[in-house]
Write a structure and sequence with these properties.
The complex is a heterodimer.
Chain A: E1 3-15, E2 20-32, E3 36-40, H1 47-54, E4 62-67, E5 70-71, H2 77-87, E6 88-92, H3 103-113, H4 120-129, H5 145-157, E7 163-167, H6 175-192, E8 195-199, H7 203-206, E9 211-216, E10 219-225, H8 229-243
Parallel strand pairs in A: 3-8, 3-9, 6-7, 7-8
Antiparallel strand pairs in A: 1-2, 1-4, 4-5, 9-10
Chain B: H1 2-11, H2 13-39, E1 55-59, E2 62-67, E3 74-79, H3 88-94, E4 99-105, E5 107-110, E6 118-121, E7 131-135, E8 143-147, E9 157-162, E10 165-176, E11 182-184, H4 186-192, E12 197-204, H5 211-219, E13 224-228, H6 239-275, H7 278-286, H8 291-330, H9 344-371, H10 374-380, H11 390-413, H12 422-449, H13 458-469, H14 471-509, E14 514-518, H15 526-534, E15 538-551, E16 559-566, E17 579-582, E18 592-595, E19 605-609, E20 615-624, E21 633-637, E22 652-657, H16 664-672, E23 675-679, H17 680-723, H18 726-735, H19 739-776, H20 789-815, H21 819-824
Parallel strand pairs in B: 6-11, 8-10, 16-21, 18-20
Antiparallel strand pairs in B: 1-12, 1-13, 2-3, 4-12, 5-6, 5-9, 7-10, 9-10, 14-22, 14-23, 15-16, 15-22, 17-20, 19-20
Amino acid sequence: MGQAVALHVVTKVYGGRAATVRALDGVTVGFEQGTFTAVMGPSGSGKSTLLQCAAGLDKPTSGEVFLAGQSLRGLSETKLTLLRRGRVGFVFQSFNLLPSLTAELNVALPLRLAGQRPSKRDVRAVLGAVGLADRARHRPAEMSGGQQQRVAIARALVTKPEVLFADEPTGALDSATSREVLTLIRDLVDHSGQTVIMVTHDPVTAAYADRVVFLADGQIADELRGPTAQSVAARMTGFELTGARP
Amino acid sequence: MIALAWHTVRARKASLIGTFIALSLGVTLLAAMALTLASTIGRDRPVRWFTAADVVVAGADSVTVHFGSGEDAETESVRTVEARAVPATLAAQLSDVDASVLVDYAGPASAAGAPGSTAHPWSSAALHPYSWVAGGPPSGPDSVVLTAPTAHRPGDRITLQTAGGPRAVTVSGVLSATIPAFYVTDQTASELAGGRVDAVALTARPGTADLADRVRAVVGGEPVRVLTGSHRHDAEPAPDDDQLVGAIALLGSTAGVAGFVSVFVVAGTFGYAVAARRREFGLLRTAGATPRQVRRLVLGEALVVGVLAGLTGGALATPVAKAFVGWLTRHDITPDNFTAHFIFWPVAAAFGAGLLVAVCGAWLAARRASRVRPVEALREAAVDRRAMTAGRWLVGLLALAGSVPLLLLITHARSTDVVVLFLPITMLLLTAFGMLSPILIPPLAWLLTAPLAPLAGPTGLLARYSALTAVRRTAATAAPVLVTIGFATATLTGINSVLHTEQAAARARVVAPAIVTPDGSAGLADSTVTALRGAPGVAAAVPATDTTVYMPQGGDAPENWVARYVAGPDLAGVLALPVAAGSLADLTGTDTVALPPGRWHVGDRVRLWLADSTEANLRVVAVLARQIDTEQTALLPAALRAAHSAHPVASTVYLRLKPGAPVAPIAAVAAAGGGKITPTTDFLSAENEKEARLNRNGLIAVLGMALLYTTIAIANTLVMATRDRAPELAALRLTGATRRQILRSIGAEAALVTGIGILLAGIVTLTVAFAVRHALTHVAPVVHVDIPWSLGAAASLICLAVALLGSLLPATALLRRRPVELAATHE
């Protein structure tokens, strides 16, 4: 199987004259198609930066990012937007739905923006897949947090993206609702072959993935396949003890 | 809490700039207009003619009525346009007072190429300082001294137009003085004034005292004024005063409009700014702030911004007022010597009013925001489920209810006085529609977008949904558009419709084919009218003299009416005035009058006051029909004029011509008498144009600054609203929208919001148009409802351009940041 996303010696430096922060420090990592990867690490380890660079939301200071085999280097902001629109889906901790649009209009929006006329049936089918067929006409403010996040997932999936990026997707949800959302994502990987890259700091959440990549100080520190909540937690604990700075 | 408010003011600098701009410019506008108005009061009125006199005796110039009795007794006084003559016997008695006494005459006089409109005795030149430019005093009955600037020089032969007709005179000298006048010998001055004494000036001899008291003792109960000190100015020829009286009325309207738009914009901006921060208040509430603390925070902030903005506005007021007065003077609305200067109380009042409105606007919105439960506040975000608040209902319905009686008044008043009602009516309707707009926005947005919906791409869809769900934001941004366009078109519709209808009526009344009017002179002398009658081809020449009468109003001050002295029997054939009862042919002698219907019947006796404040007891011989041009109009017999005017000359002479009569010889006769002949149609269109220009400048003076302010407010609210949409733009970016798509959608929404404002303004304008049509239908031969389409279109385009700039520029700035950063500004 090919690589859906690959990072090659990617470095990202933030900051101005006074102090610079190396958020990513020569990271090389690949994500295979049809797999579900969790990226973990303590606060400030660079996990969100890694996700943003991999998704083309942010440009690395050096190194190269490949999305579905295509290099992102040198692409203009408009080209990047078009590429993201076609190939990538996003889910964030804050759901980022448009408050003025109903669930179905929110879901259909990426297709409309791409100049397509989505059929109502297709949109309803995607909403059905996330279990919200009966909420199509509700506005975000009229739905629970879990429902809003499922609408956000449906919107991310409607363009049939090659990669779904999720940044703490359950961060704003209670544990029961988190479970629902994670089971939904797991099903997408198992039954539709969806590639998913998810950033989290919660071992229980990470345990839903096929593989866990650990980041520390902007570098890949470790990797774990077939994780369980216990094994992840154990690795994290050891990791934070050795990895944490004084 | 004030300390915390100070911190939030500093932290939220960017979003508070919007409220600061709205308030500081609002206070600037209000204070500048109040300053201009206040500068007209207590203005220095230097004595310029009677400088050397200690006491001036002049004829009475006011009408005083007493009504009620006992506790409720009241006195009302009205100043008339002319003063009475000083009785000749009194002038003679005053000559016996131990002082140097000078009798001043002021007969109408004018000459081409020299300033001034009255002829005075040469001895009156000693009353004030002057300096010779050339020549010397008048030497005989045909000799005159002119006032500079003039091109004439001693020895020039000129024609002096006087009440007795044209008079060939020789210039004996030219002098320079502050008040222009023609100086002739004392004997000639008396002759030119028809013996009418304008004033008696007395100067105390050295070593004598109490001159004023001695004069008062001589005067006794005669209808004259004994003036000393700065009051001497009241007896002087002062053309500036009339202009300033008109300007004060205009400036009153200007200040009223300024007050209205400042309150409207400031309250709206502060209310919106607080409402847009509900999420922040929700967070404060979750952090443990009580509703009371949130309210105090908002009030504290409003106070901090209000004081800073008020001080800024107060500081800007004086230069703005000076610039405004400069414009007024250049357009002949205020006299040349009128200036605005800093006065404490109007600026302080504007400061206080601005602060009060800002705090009230913020408080109302804060009360609502603070009542919401924390979680709810966090969730409600940009969707306004209850944009219509109780306050909006209350103010909106009250304003609507308030406009109804005024609209009814217009439809029943049947007079040109309704013109003054259009400003308050427009203000009330604008308030009503502005307040009720949240319920009108969904249908209007649907109306505007439905025809385009099948064509609109995703950007159009976004714009439409966004405008429809964020009703509060839409209402806030559409409001200044509504005020800008609505104010301009609605007032102009009302005023122009009445004026044009009135002009059409005037045109319909004149059946004479030609008219002679003064060409720079004070009026046409009786001898000129006689000469015109004798001119070849003239079948009839009928003079009319414009004047004013003061009608008793029961329990109120006498009302100022338009009046004309005409010769009743001659009117047929030159003027077709609508008569309901009696006959204009009976308008003869010195004790008859024709009046509009209502209070009088033919045969009634009417007590009224003439222009020079003398009381007249007249018999009604004709009742005019109820028409727009007969409202508050009286016709007086020509013979009554002689004893009651310092200007016994005609304002207009109507000519009836024999078939095929050549114009040239008639024009020559008219020119000899200081007049010019015009075909009636040309005359009316020239008059209309003059009036239209005056009206246009007046309207610009009243509305210009206010509309400039509301146009800035359009950009200001849109910049505020767009900046608040950072999270939404981020979500769109993350959904895959390109910058161009987002800008197109923001632009489409700005256009939609402007369109809603335009439609609301259209509703207000049509309401006024409907009322004015209804009002005029039965009182005019032809009704012109004049909606200024081109002005409305131009104003709409300007608003659209400003709205697009105000939303696209901040959106472009926001889009320059990376979408993840934008998303982060969310929390």
